[in-house]
């Protein structure tokens, strides 16, 4: 008995939509910061904040994905152990 591989239902259209929405929001925010009627120091501060938020979002997404993969692997290992125990168990053997 083999364990089926886990299929992730991410389609190409969903990936393209996510990438385009991220790119569009990033460009819009950069243009908004550039067009603000403030000095260079304020723009620099907002730009650094933008970089920090984007890098934090990528890090959070990676951590969530890694945690989900660990849970999936743990569940598959537990299922394999249970399958092995069930296969080794002979239900027709006289009681011991």
Automatic annotation (TrEMBL):
The chain crosses the membrane at residues 12-34, 40-61. Coiled coil: none annotated. It holds the Pfam family YiaAB. Keywords: Membrane, Transmembrane, Transmembrane helix. The keyword Transmembrane applies. Signal peptide: none annotated. The keyword Transmembrane applies. Residues 14-66 form the YiaAB two helix domain. This is YiaA/YiaB family inner membrane protein. It comes from Streptomyces ochraceiscleroticus. The lineage of its organism: Bacteria, Bacillati, Actinomycetota, Actinomycetes, Kitasatosporales.
